[in-house]
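Lab notes, practical 5.
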Amino acid sequence: MQELFDSITLFFTNDIYQFVVDVWSWLIYEITLFKVKASIAFMTISWDVAKQLLIDLGITAKLSQAIGFIPADVKSNLEFFKIFTGLDLILQAFVTKFVMKVSKIV
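Output from the prediction step:
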């Protein structure tokens, strides 16, 4: 009879506790995974919006026009170091950050 009470006590003190801990850790894992996937999806949407915003405002065209005024020898050196590509990426990153800050979804 004592063994029955010991096994019942053990069930309520250890097994249910471990079940709650396992369920809680699984829940936290799934919520974290969802937030990471949602952030990645939202970042791709923001990137597309930023590219379209740059096209609509004509900033990329104005940048290309300004690059056209640079002397040829300087321009070739800058193109060798991919300065213009880096400048375009930095500009798109700033606009993407702006879009993400304005929408504040994630």
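Observations recorded by the TA: The chain has a mean pLDDT of 89. The radius of gyration is 28 Å.
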